[in-house]
Design a protein that fits this description.
The protein has helices at 14-46, 51-54, 98-101, 111-121, 139-153, 164-170, 173-185, 210-225, 243-266, 284-294, 307-319, 326-337, 351-368; strands at 57-59, 62-64, 90-96, 127-133, 157-162, 195-197, 269-274, 323-325. The chain is of the alpha/beta class. The chain folds into 2 domains: 57-66 and 174-225, no CATH class; 93-172 and 233-369, SGNH hydrolase (Rossmann fold). The mean pLDDT is 90.
Length: 376
């Protein structure tokens, strides 16, 4: 007798199979719609962000540093201007670079004008401050300006506002050439600076999308941190610098010595102040940590953010030159008050930084002016 066959499994009705296919398509469409909605919301949300929050501006096919600096229509090629010295006035010539120029700040707020204001506010006589600085000037440019104008300027005091971050490098043709090449090649020559054409931006597919801009920018930042190149300017903080840096330092101190001798020739006093930097103002440990975050290759070397100022201070002590380290004093001020004295991206002093520098330098001049004789 033949065994009975097992009961067959009932077939799904055709309508049930179509229902399953319909549910699959519905789920797929729902997923696509959800992703599209999230991307749309992200796009709208990022469009509410300012360039400062985004970390960039996208203009004319290029990612750029957010615009923090005010427009400046002053003629950088024109020599410093000044009128006849008022009878009985004490005139100060303030030498420097873009810090003395006051890059990005209204002229009335820059360090030289604030120094003059605070000195005159004390009521201890009449003071005039002539700002003799231009963006990109090195010590040789400052000396030339002083030599060309010194006799007509008739200063009573000369102050060099020294910026270790790039002053030493700018006194070396060899290091300047390296800096120029790096500036052209690096996405970030400074932690806050940005120059990235859209052609070099990773996964930049839709120019009009703020979300795509943001994601591409973040990928570019990650890629820049894999670059083993350390901007040449930060080598000034290396505890074991190469021979080219020793030559640069020798030239820098030689130029400062020539400036002192010219002041002696004029029969006027001389002093030197060291300006602050965005990382140095945080203190050695925190400042280096911020630099390593931008340039991880720095973690493999030994750096000291106080080293350049220490060299300049020793130079001044040997020659009995009045010396002011604004950076070390600003550290304590920032730690105590939480003030922001530098533009977050650009790095130069902002209006508050110029005010703080002018105020402190006025105290410095007032307390040490009796020491500023010729040959000091």
């Amino acid at each position: 007798m033949t065994a009975p066959l097992p009961p067959s499994k009932p077939l799904d009705p055709p309508s049930s199979s179509k229902s399953r296919r319909g549910k699959w398509w519905a789920k797929w469409l729902l997923a696509v719609a959800s992703v599209g909605l999230m991307l749309g919301l992200a796009e709208m949300y990022l469009r509410t962000w300012s360039p400062d929050r985004l970390g960039f501006e996208y203009v004319d096919g290029e990612f750029r540093t957010p615009q923090e600096l005010l427009p400046d229509d002053r003629d950088r090629s024109a020599p410093p201007t000044f009128g006849p010295k008022a009878p009985g006035a004490t005139r100060i010539a303030l030498l420097g670079d873009s810090y003395v120029w006051g890059l990005g700040c209204p002229e009335a707020t820059i360090v030289g004008n604030r120094l003059q204001h605070h000195l005159n506010e004390k009521g201890a006589g009449t003071f005039e401050v002539v700002s003799m600085g231009r963006p990109g000037w090195s010590q040789v440019d400052q000396l030339r300006a002083l030599q060309s104008l010194g006799e007509r300027l008739q200063p009573d005091l000369v102050i060099t506002l020294f910026l270790p971050l790039n002053d030493v490098r700018e006194n070396s043709n060899e290091l300047n050439a390296i800096a120029s090449a790096q500036y052209e090649q690096m996405t970030r020559f400074r932690p806050g600076w940005l120059q990235l054409p859209k052609e070099d931006a990773p996964w930049f597919l839709w120019e009009g999308s703020r979300l795509n801009q943001f994601l591409s920018y973040q990928l570019a930042v990650r890629a820049s941190r894999r670059d083993p190149t350390i901007p040449i300017d930060y080598q000034v903080f290396a505890t074991e610098p190469g021979p080219e840096w020793q030559k640069a330092w020798d030239e820098t101190l030689r130029l400062l010595q020539r400036t002192i001798r010219y002041c002696e020739k004029l029969g006027v006093g001389y002093a030197l102040a060291v300006a602050s930097t965005p990382q140095g103002i945080l203190g050695n440990e925190a400042g280096l940590a911020e630099l390593v975050q931008s340039y991880p290759a720095m973690a493999d070397g030994s750096y000291d953010l106080d080293l350049p100022a220490s060299k300049v201070e020793a130079f001044c002590e040997e020659r009995e030159i009045p010396f002011l380290n604004l950076e070390s004093e600003f550290r304590e001020r920032v730690r105590r008050t939480g003030e922001v004295l530098h533009f977050p991206f650009d790095g130069h002093w902002n209006i508050e930084g110029h005010e703080a520098a002018g105020q402190r330098m006025a105290e410095f001049v007032g307390s040490s002016i009796h020491e500023w004789g010729p040959g000091k």
